[in-house]
Structures are given as C-alpha cells and as structure tokens.
Amino acid sequence: MPATQHRDLATAFAATGRNHPYLAFTLNSLCNLDCVFCKPRCMPDYGHKDRPLTASDYAHIAAEAGAWQVRKAHCSGGEPTLRADILDVIAGLADGLGPDAAIGMTSHGNLRRGLTVEKLQRAGLTYLNISLHSLDPTRSATIMGGGDPRTARATVDTALSLGLRVKINCVLQRSYLDDAFAVAELARELPIAVRLIELQNIGPARALFDTEFISEAEVRGRLDQWFANAGEVSRGQLGVRSPGRYLSPAGWAGSIGFISNSSCATCSDANRIKITPTGVARPCILHNRDIPLKPHLADGTLHDAFAHLFQAMLERDRNEAWQGFHYVDYDLRWDRMERPEGTPVLPLLPILAPDTAPPSCTRTATGER
To answer: Among the four residues 17, 114, 193, 210, which has the most C-beta atoms within 10 Å?
Structure first.
C-alpha cells in the first residue's frame, strides 16, 4: 500500500479526536481461576478448538501495526501467562511496535512456576494490569475461584520496583463493596491506578446482575469524602486509553478511575482493535465486520487488513453496513459470543474529510445516545 494512504487514513482517524488505535490481543481462553462473573470453563469452546496464533504471527502483526503508527499492544485472556510461549509473544510485540511502544498485560497476578515479572519485563512488558477484587484471602477465593491476593499484591510490588506502570482492575459487586473499597485504597500509598469496573449483564454475570450490580454514580456517592478535593489525572499521564475520569484524592500516591460500560455508553471513544486467539480482528466486538488475519499472514497482505480496520473504525457509527448505531464496545473476553455472518473484508470507503468525521458520543444516564 502506498505510504500516502497510510498517512491519509491515520490523519483521518486522528481528526475524529479519538486516541490512536491499539492492538488488544486475547491470547487464550484458558484460566486456572474461575471468577464468578467470568466462569471461563462454562464456555463451549473453552481451550479453543482451532489453532491459535503463534509468537511469530504476533511479531508479524505488530510489525505491520507499527507501520500504521500503532504504538500499543495489550494482552489478555483467559490468563495470558498460562501460554508456554508468553515471553516470546511479548518480545515479538515489543520488537514489532518499536522501542517506544507500550506493551501491557492483564493477569490475576498468581504467576505460574518459573515465570516472573522480571522475565516479562526483560521480554518487553512496560505495564501490568492486575485483577484483584478483595484483599481478604477467603473472600477473594470465593470471588475468583482460587488464587491468593497476597501473591497478587507481591506481583504488584515487584512490578513497581522494576519501574512498570501498574493498574488494578476491580469488578464492583454489591455484596463485596467494602472489599472493592479496600482494594481502591491501595492507591493511597502506591503509585497505581485502581479501576473500579461496573458489572456487565453478559455471559455468566447475567446470573448476578440483578442483585450485584452497583453503578458508578452510587459508588461515587459513597466515596464522596475521597473525591471532594481530588485532582484529575490525565489518561495520557497514566498510559490509559479507556474512557472515564481518573481522580487522585488529596495526598494519595495513586488514582481511582471507573469503567462504566453498563451505566454509560462509551463506544465513540473506543479505539481497540480486538484480535482473538485464532487471529480474527474485530474493530467492534459487537458487530460482524471481522477480518481473519491468518490468510493475510500467509499471503503477506496484512497491509490490506489494516487498511480495512482503520477505515472500518472511521465509519463505525455512520456506515449502513455496520447496521446503524451501536452502544457499548465490551473489552472482555467474549470473542466467542455468537455473531452474525459478515463479509470478511469490506471494500475501502472514501476517506473522510476532517469536517465530516463521526461525532463523539453523547453520554446519558441510560447509556444511550
């Protein structure tokens, strides 16, 4: 593809006011824990029946993404550290995106024997997101189906000592609200970003939603004393691309943010290019314009796939082929939710002029626009 088309598409995307896209890899569906709102083993394709991407595949995808000025890749699962080749995957992403790239991972922090934060950092990891929902070992085991929050906390401390940026993801449940507040209070002494995440009415969480959901608005009300004199921390400063405000209470070393896809639509700010374990790229997790990357890897035509991905994200709110407006772009592991059949690769559409860029989302109390 001509370099000018690279630049034109990247420029048109920047004109929308969104963050530049980043790669969000789901590396596997395997997990050795069993969180009550996730329950990976209940999924019909647990373990993946198709061959996943290899470390070499990830390196090639990252190299092409780097040509499109993509400078961030995030790995999740399942539990990505269960992959035997995780260090090779991280190294391939870091090499492909270049020396200034952000390479991150979401993990429960109970690393398997032989794998350390030091090894992950040497491979190229620059930040770590730890899933932590209670500091109490018994209550944590009830929520997560195993693991030890003390081990996860030690992982956090090691990551910070190595200079990695650290975020903690804590899912809000009404029955465990005090636990979530205790997790959030880690940011009082540690230079971390704690993200309080609303429960979403999807997958196994549907069985909990009616009784356990608690909104950002209600939680903010309960934490009014913390936020009364809080200063706002920019997402750029935190290295955070997801929507929401991040506040640092007066005197705290870290910050608290919210991810509130249930009570407030965030799709217009979404900039993830989701890529499933078997190599299906999805510029929107809920719609059907997917691109299987394996044929492009085999044919050496990844540039065509990325041209489509950028154009699709430009048109996501206006193109009739996308079935009209949509609301929430879930950044969970639901790659395998049933989806309608779609055209694998759309023809490229005319590049939008800056004054015709899609409008930003108008957020309302109902999450609709």
So the answer is: 193
Give pLDDT tens digits for 159-194. 999 999 999 999 999 999 999 999 999 999 999 999
Rounded to whole angstroms, the Cα distance separating 36 from 146 reads 11
Least confident segment among 72-86, 135-149, 305-319, 339-353: 339-353
**Whole-number Å distance between alpha carbons of 48 and 113:** 23
Both structure tokens of 269: 């700010």
Q: Which of 207, 246, 240 is nearest to 331 (CA)?
A: 240
Q: Is 280 helix (H, G, I), strand (E, B) or coil?
A: strand
Q: What's the mean pLDDT in 327-337?
A: 40
Q: Which helix (H) or strand (E) holds 24?
A: strand 22-26
Tell me 230's DSSP state.
P
Specify the CATH superfamily of domain 3-268.
Aldolase class I (3.20.20.70)
Q: Please give the average per-residue pLDDT across 213-233, as a whole number.
A: 90
Residue 203 in tokens: 């997958």
Beta strands in 99-242 (DSSP E): 102-107, 127-131, 165-171, 193-197, 231-233
Which residue bears the tokens 């003390």? Answer: 150
DSSP, collapsed to helix, strand or coil, labels residue 231 as: strand
Would you say how long the chain is, in residues?
Answer: 369
Report how far apart, in Å, the C-alpha atoms of 207 and of each of 101, 210, 211, 274, 338 are. 39, 8, 9, 26, 19
Dihedral over Cα of 204, 209, 212, 213: its sign: positive
pTM for the model stands at: 0.84
- Mutual orientation of helices 302-314 and 55-67 as an angle, nearest 10°? 60
